[in-house]
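As a warm-up, study this chain.
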Amino acid sequence: MADDDAPRENDVHRNESGPLPGTSSARDSGLPALPDAYDQVKRSRSASLWSGLILGAVVLLILLIFILQNLTDQQIKFLFWQANLPVGVSLLIAAILGALVVGSAGGLRIVQLRRAAKKLQ
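Now compare it with the structure written out below.
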């Protein structure tokens, strides 16, 4: 039977000097808490731009894979137009047109709100 207080091979070594600064046990013990590095760094435009670029690259990669996997031709008919396009390309065009419709509706609403705000000034 092994002693419960004896160290084992897989045990993590404990810090016997006390709690680390910035931890909840350090706050409880009265030690000054150090702010986290993440709290000290504020968001910047370049950080937002970098995040947007990475997200855009991932979306483009996913779209490219989708188009390459759906290359079978399909006949598209719309009013008087007729075309043979791959399925992936036709769905991409439909998604872009849908985004343009939604974006234009949002843009018109923004213009409407700006005009109303100017009248109130």
